[in-house]
Every structure is written in structure tokens, then in C-alpha cells.
Amino acid sequence: MTNDSSRIIIFDTTLRDGEQSPGAAMTHEEKLRIAELLDEMGVDVIEAGFPISSPGDFKAVQEISKIVKNASVCGLARAGFKDVDRAGEALKGARRPRIHTFISTSPVHMKHKLNMGENAVLEAIGASVTRARNFTSEVEWSAEDATRTVPEFLVRCVDVAINAGATVINVPDTVGYSTPQEYFEIIKMLRERVPNADKVIFSTHVHNDLGLAVANSLAGVLAGARQVECTINGIGERAGNAALEEIVMALKVRKDIMPFTTGINTTMLTRASKLVSSITGFPVQYNKAIVGKNAFAHESGIHQDGMLKNVETYEIMRPEDVGVHATSLMLGKLSGRHAFKDKLEAMGYTLEAEAFEDAFKRFKELADKKKHIFDEDIAALVDDEIMRGQDAIIVKQLRVESGTGIEPVAALTLVVNGEEHRITAEGDGPVDAIFKAIRGLYPHTATLQLFQISAVTEGTDAQATVTVRLDENGRTVTGKASDTDTMAAAAYAYVNALNKLVVKREKQAPEALSVAR
User: Fold this and answer.
1) Residue 306: its pLDDT value, please?
2) Which of 275, 330, 355, 426 has most Cβ atoms within 10 angstroms of its Cβ?
């Protein structure tokens, strides 16, 4: 993809490996939103999904292929012709399609997972890569569990993949087992021992089971890898993947020892982090590097004193570099459409006319309830508005009675497919009463897996963000909503999850496949 030896290719797998996080399933529309933002941000390769796993994944890869303007769009495939052909079909509309095929190479995986010997694995590698080349010249091959593979056999596998036409060789630390020095040596060994290694790009794909995903990825880069596979917020199976924002900013800040560049617009990192967190319902820990709420906060008196004298005493990067506003324009109930629109644009939001009017109306309603409106309030409000879309179920009215010695009661009005329905329900508490009322008006068998409340900003008038996760017959969805009324936010979040469940019911359940790498 590039002949510049100092250019690091950023391969984002949020939509594929990231979505494999338990509870992180995304709707079709949410995947498209994330893909558009990744493309705008400058990601080089977007792994859009695993086309053979389900009709939904196939459609997502197909549609993302059509809307992505700059990045390569990648589809994952096991080392079988059906997988490869399905990926090739899904990628037909892509400007720059890539097929990513893989097979296990470690002794434990070959014996217990594949039940295949070395020769059979080598044959599968050659056949799958050759098949993929029939669809695109951009073919990536991965050795699943590479870091626990016998070095001599790994060399043979990579050699076969290159001879069959692979242009990118990925070296996954599938179980997060490796250490930086060890991973460095594996990449170095392959580049030195594999014939024609200089004709391909080596790639890192590291899981975070020991908390070393970013360190191992950077060690791979120092050893000669020129592609890094990562996810927004580091989401992924088990402990997750290497975090894109940490990789990119480490390369940007430490050019003295890592003289490399990426094509990422770093000012969009915080926006991307918030979008993925909002869609998946996975909160970003306050002390998360780069995008955490406290990443640029200083409370210690010694630190504050140093910051007042010179920001470089305690900050190694500027907040603005990652999209955090150093100063915040305060909006209130007297602010007009123009100020609100300017604020949205400054925060990276572009809304259609109708969506803007809806958001502005909700902003005004919020401003009547809160004295100060912070950027976080606006982000929560707009993200909430975007997520609701054309819902089949809408909360029209809610009244909750609760207190000491009072039986909690929720009086709820829902609009379901255009028709109003009302009910009054009792519960062990106000939230239980609300959820029972919703279930009474819209019967379903989904079970509640998660109910989480967090404050968007400080203060007693802060908006509450409620996250709800529902599971129905193995289908998991996450709903999220924000409001100054916590009970209203709870109702909105539950209904938001129900709306996603309605969409998921229309899709065939994904085939159970083991695709962790």
C-alpha cells in the first residue's frame, strides 16, 4: 500500500474483532456510522466484518464497501473456499478491497482446534491465498496463534503464503501471551529468514491479556512491521486489542525513538472514542490513556502549580491534538441556533436539517433544566438523538411515584408502530416498575444483562447516562440514553435496546464460528 518505510499503516478492526467483545454487538446502521468516521479520520484499512458468519455481517461489509471513500475495506475469511468466495462477493463494490484469510499454526491449535497436520495446514494456506487473489490483488494472510507457533514451521507457513500471492503477512499474538522483546524477535526472525520477506508488509495483531498489547505492537514496528492492527478504545475479545489511539499518539509523541508517521487525524480520536463507547455501551475508564476523562486532568496541588507555570511540566501532548477542547464555549437557554450549530461543528457533528432541529429542541429543553451546558452534555444529547433514528417504539410519557413507605408505580405511554398504548405497573423500585411497564406494553422474552448509570458531568443537575443490555436467545443488544431525569433516561435506554432487538429479530442468527486471532 505504501513504499514509504517510515509510514505505518493503521488497520482498524473495531467492526470485526472489536464487535466480538461480549455485549458489543452493533446494528447495521451503527457499523456504517463508525466506518464513515474511521474513513474520515484517516484509517488505512477498515476490517468491516466476517462475511460468511451471517447475512447481517455480509450486508455490513457490502454496504461499507460502497460508502468508504479512501480506506481499503477488508473482509475476514477462514482458509476455505466458501469463506473466501463469500468475502470476495461482499467486497465487490469496494474501491480497494482486501481479503484477510487465516488459519491456526500453533501445535495446540492444529491438534485440538483444526485436527490437522503441518502438511495439511500448508496446503490450506496456499490454496486459500491463491483463491483470494482471484478477487483482489490485496490479500492478507494471518497465522492464528503465531506467537506460540514453532519458529521453523512459522517460517514455512509465511513462505507458502508469500509464494501464493499474499501482500501482507500478519503475525497475531492471539492469546496475548507474548512480551515486547519476544515479539520483536519473532518479527525480526521472519524478516530475516523468509525468502522474499522484503516484498510484503508485516503486520502486528496483539491482544491485551497481559496488558502488553500496545507495547508489543510498538516492538513489532521497531522490528520492521509496517502495519498495526488495532481497535478504538482497545475493545475486543477477552481483555481486548491494542488501542488505536494509544498506538497513534505513542508514534506521534515519541518520534525521537520511533521516527514513523501515520495518516490519522488525531484531533478526531476523542470523537471516535465517544462514538464507539456510545454505540457499544462500554464506558471508557476515567484514567484511560489519550481519551479517558482524566487523561488531561490535574488535581494534585504540585501538578497544578507546575501546569500554571508551564504546561510541559506535566503534559506530553496537547489536549487539542486528540480532540479535547482546552477551553469550552458555555451554552445556555439564551443561545440560538447559530451558536448551537457552531458548537456542533466544532465538536465534529454534522446533522441534517430535521435532525438538527430535533437536537436543538432537546438542547433548549435541557437548558431550561440545567444552568450550565457542557460539551459532554451536548455530545450525549446529539449521540442520543442520532441513535434513536426511526424507532418502532417511542416513549411518549412517563410518570413515576416512589419514596419511603410508598409502593413504586410507573405510569407509561408508549407509541408502538404509530399507536399509543398506556399502562400502570408496580415494582420493587422505580426502575423495576418502569421496566415492567415497558414489558407489559411490549411483551418480549429478553433478559436484562446490564443496568448502569453514570453522570455525564458534575453537579446535582447533571445528565444521567443509562446503559441497558438485553439478551434474547443469544442475541445481545445495548441501549443508551441521557437525561437530567434518571428515571426517564432508564426508560429511554431500555426502549432504545428494544428497538435494536426488533431490528435484530429480522436478521438470521450468526453462525457460531471461532474467529479469535
Assistant:
1) 45
2) 275
Q: What band does 430 get if pLDDT is binned at 50, 70 and 90?
A: very high
Which of 472, 455, 465 is CA-nearest to residue 490? Answer: 465
Own/partner long-range contacts of 444-453 (Cβ < 8 Å, ≥24 apart):
444/472, 444/498, 444/501, 445/472, 445/473, 446/470, 446/471, 446/472, 446/497, 446/498, 446/501, 447/471, 447/472, 449/23, 449/476, 450/23, 450/281, 450/478, 451/490, 452/281, 452/283, 453/486, 453/489, 453/490
Give the strand pairing for 406-416 and 419-426.
Answer: antiparallel
3-class secondary-structure state, position 485: coil
State the amino acid at position 14 in one-letter form: T
| 248 contacts 262 by C-beta, under 8 angstroms | yes
Cβ neighbors of 196 (< 8 A, separation 6 or more) are 159, 162, 163
- Beta bridge partners, 373, equal 331
Q: What is the mean pLDDT of the chain?
A: 88
Give pLDDT tens digits for 284-325.
Answer: 888 899 998 777 764 434 333 443 455 555 578 888 888 886
- Provide φ and ψ at 472, rounded to 5°: -135, 110
Report the candidate in 447, 453, 517 with the shortest Cα–Cα distance to residue 487.
453
Pick the CATH number of 390-505 from 3.30.160.270, 2.30.30.30, 3.10.450.350, 3.30.470.10: 3.30.160.270
pLDDT of residue 431 exceeding 60, the answer is yes
Whether domain 9-280 has CATH 3.20.20.70: yes
Q: Where are the domains of the chain?
A: 9-280, 328-387, 390-505
Instruction: Grade residue 135 by pLDDT with cuts at 50, 70 and 90.
Output: very high
